[in-house]
Amino acid sequence: MLHHIEIYVSDLKKSTEFWGWYLEELGYTSFQKWEEGQSWKLDETYIVFVQTKEPFLDNPYHRARVGLNHLAFYASSRQHVDDMTEKLKNKGVSILYTKKHPFAGGENHYAVYFEDPDRIKVELVAP
Predict the structure, then answer these.
(1) How many angstroms separate the CA atoms of 51 and 70, rounded?
(2) What is the pLDDT, as a whole number, of residue 93?
(3) For 90-101, how does the pLDDT look when each residue is reduced to its tens digit (9 = 90+)?
(4) H-only helix segments in the chain
């Protein structure tokens, strides 16, 4: 079982606004909050977002570099994926791979792909 994930972000305010509503839609609750970070928890697993310090902001994140490629979360159903897709669009979040959506991961893989404010790819996939 995963204990936690910690992600450094370029703009804590933007990232917590983006991730807060999304994680709460998936059942996470606010867990910890301090000046340089915030976390959300579901069961025993939590996700932490921490403000990157100024000297390290010169090299932005890119998923093709060594490190994290994307985060994938389970949806409760295909309808959940569809509902979240609409909510993401209403919030102005760009959906990735629109020409293949919702089967961008293959014909048996029903999901929505999008990016957070730092362009970290996120996936919500139906079981």
Answers:
(1) 19
(2) 97
(3) 999 999 999 999
(4) 12-25, 78-90
CA gyration radius for the chain?
15
Which contiguous run of DSSP H or E holds residue 9? Answer: strand 4-9
Residue 5, both tokens: 């994930």
Whether the predicted model's global pTM rises above the 0.85 cut:
yes
Torsion sign (Cα): 18, 23, 26, 30: negative
Sequential DSSP letters for 88-113: HHHTTPPBSSTTTTT-TT-TT--EEE
Q: What is the pLDDT of residue 60?
A: 87
C-beta neighbour count of 41 within 10 angstroms = 17
The pairing of strands 111-115 and 121-125 is: antiparallel
Give the HSE-up count for residue 122: Cα atoms under 13 Å, Cβ half-sphere: 23
